[in-house]
Amino acid sequence: MGEQVRTVDVQELISYGDDLLKLLKSRKDIDGLMQSIEGVKSLVSSCNTDYSKIQNLVEESQKQIEACTQEMTKARDESDLESFQRDLEDERQKEKELLQELR
């Protein structure tokens, strides 16, 4: 009977050893998972930083485009005004010439 108790104790010990091995293996898995999570956090942080930089560059580019568009519009308007002034001056000159011919 002493041997049976010893056998049961050995079975319990083997079971305990198996559970301990599973825990240790799980612990390795948990450590690996934690490292992966830290890597993901680092990657997300890096991506957020890059996104912010790119967003700022896009906003700056949009402002520059808007400024260029305004300058082009202003230059076109000034060009049109100068053209109208030249046309007006040409018409006045023609009018003067016609008036001189009529006299």
UniProtKB/TrEMBL annotation:
<dbReference type="GO" id="GO:0051983">
    <property type="term" value="P:regulation of chromosome segregation"/>
</dbReference>
<dbReference type="InterPro" id="IPR044951">
    <property type="entry name" value="SPC24-like"/>
</dbReference>
<feature type="region of interest" description="Disordered">
    <location>
        <begin position="71"/>
        <end position="103"/>
    </location>
</feature>
<protein>
    <submittedName>
        <fullName>Uncharacterized protein</fullName>
    </submittedName>
</protein>
<feature type="compositionally biased region" description="Basic and acidic residues">
    <location>
        <begin position="73"/>
        <end position="103"/>
    </location>
</feature>
